[in-house]
Amino acid sequence: MPRRLPVLRFLSTLPLLLATAVAGAATTVRFDIDMRAEIAAGRFDPARDALGVQGSAAPLSWGPPVLLKPGGTEGRYQGQVVFEKAPFGGQPVQYKLHMLRAGRGHDQGWEEGRNHPLLLADRPEIAVARAFNAEPAQLPLSRVGTIEKLPAIESKHVGAREVQVWLPPGYAEEPQRRYPVLYLHDGQNVFDAASAGAEWQVDETAQRLMGTKAIAPAIIVAVAHGADRFEDYTPTAALPDFDPADKDKVKAIGGGAPRYARYLIEELKPAIDARYRTKPGAADTAVGGSSLGGLVTMWLLLHHGDSFGAGLVVSPSIWWDQKFIVRDVQAHAGGPRPRVWLDMGGQEGGIEALQLARELRDALQARGWQAGRSLKYLEQVDAGHDEAAWAARVEGMLRFLYGR
User: Fold this and answer.
1) What does the pLDDT look like over 108-155, one tens digit per residue?
2) What kind and span of H or E run contains 351?
3) What is the pLDDT of residues 179-218, one digit of tens each?
4) Helix 351-366 vs helix 320-330: crossing angle, to nearest 10
5) DSSP assigned state of 185
6) pLDDT per residue as tens digits for the range 35-73
7) How far is it, in rounded angstroms, from Cα 190 to Cα 120?
8) What is the dihedral of CA 317, 320, 323, 328, to 10 degrees?
9) How far, in Å, CA of 244 to CA of 255, rounded?
């Protein structure tokens, strides 16, 4: 019998600072960046290097940078970016400075550490005057409802990871009631922005929808990824993108999804069912995640439909291993067909990302999933590949799973 686990409990005492901010007029952000330390150390050469800023919200992106130009005193770089709207839920824009040099790989030259936040929140103008590699600002966190943090559960299959459990309104007042459960991957980004600087705001959205009885109440379990996210969330081992000059050094990565599935099904789920008043059947158990988390969700629905009756396949990494997940759907021989929410943003890699999503949608329909019934497909034209974009779709996801 699964052992019962002690917990740390957090109540909703913090204000909804990020969730309640609304997008207003455009905000101009003026950058004035001190590069003198990088120049003195030889890491930045003004004669051949450029300085760019990249980020999570238009007109910034994690693709082409917005270039800053030399200005003011020697060693300083300046420029401005105009944001027409704030990210969903008043969340901050995430950005980093990037030293650019011809012949250098995309993963080189970035500022160290986590992203820097820009909280627009109806501010017409923001001045950013700092040095390259300055410590990012800390913003207040928003957590709503009763959230219990479980100690690490010992596993025979995967490394230890944090698990948090959000309990629906009225859970303590209705001791006879049982609830469906939603398990979400990348759980460190589900309830607050401490890890990524942005979050899904699942607690705020669920609290609002359940509080107004727009959806049935449910328990939400946020499962953080382990030390190797690729290992957890990929069903096959594959070669990553690499420089052809290094081809002899590259090894296949990933392929640990079967072990992660055993952790979820054989270890975590029994522990959750033992501690909380759950409805343990597959029909009342859902799973979800974004990017690689969307990939592993689709794989779990295909291969463990007897455990998970529905799933949120959000901005999935369909490209993994030459579209393995599409081939996997095409090979689906029957058995359970869990309900699938499948979506993709129009700014997640251009038309190629949308074409892959449509290919996966078509493969599902060809194998018996019915549009509007067992399959909900959504293209969010203006959405990128980030937590704020996914937060904007959480209401639709929860209505899909638990709408009355």
Assistant:
1) 999 998 899 999 988 899 999 999 999 998 888 889 999 999 987 889
2) helix 351-366
3) 999 999 999 999 998 888 889 999 999 999 999 999 999 9
4) 20
5) S
6) 999 999 999 999 999 999 999 888 998 888 999 999 978
7) 21
8) -90
9) 23
Domains 8-13+142-402 and 23-131 share a fold: no
What is the arrangement of strands in the sheet containing 50-55, beginning at the earlier edge strand? 116-118, 93-100, 50-55, 66-70, 76-83, 27-34, 125-131
At residue 315, the 3 state secondary structure works out as coil
Superfamily grouping for domain 8-13+142-402: Alpha/Beta hydrolase fold, catalytic domain (3.40.50.1820)
For tokens 């509080």, what's the residue? Answer: 211
Closest to 163 (Cα-Cα) out of 178, 148, 175, 177: 148
Q: Strand pairing of 310-314 and 285-290?
A: parallel
3-37 confidence digits (pLDDT tens): 333 333 333 333 333 333 344 579 999 999 999 99
Say how far apart CA 24 and CA 296 lie, in whole Å.
37
For the chain, the structural domain boundaries read 8-13+142-402, 23-131
Buried b / exposed e along 262-284 (16+ C-beta atoms within 10 A) = bbbbebbbebbeebbebbeebeb
**3-state secondary structure at position 117:** strand
Angle, helices 394-402 vs 202-211, to 10°: value is 50
| CB-neighbour burial class of residue 345 (10 A; exposed 0-12, middle 13-18, buried 19+) | buried
In sequence order, the β-bridge partners of residue 166 are 147, 220
Rounded CA-CA distance 85/393 in Å is 17
d(CA 187, CA 166): 11
Q: How far apart are CA 224 and CA 92, in angstroms?
A: 22
Which residues face 380 on adjacent strands? 345
| Number of neighbours of residue 361 by Cβ within 10 angstroms | 22
Q: CB–CB of 339/310 below 8 Å?
A: yes
Burial 96-123 (b: 16+ CB within 10 A, else e): bbbbbeeeeeeeebebeeebbbbbbbeb
User: Two tokens at 111?
Assistant: 């500022």
Query: Which helix or strand (DSSP H or E) is residue 220 part of?
Result: strand 219-223
Domain 23-131: assigned CATH number: 2.60.40.10
**What's the rounded Cα separation, in Å, for the pair 328 and 303?**
10
Strand partners, 58: none
Question: What CA–CA distance (Å, rounded) separates 11 from 189?
Answer: 18
The pair phi, psi for residue 220, each rounded to 5°, is -120, 125
Query: Which phi and psi angles does 149 have, rounded to 5°?
Result: -100, 120
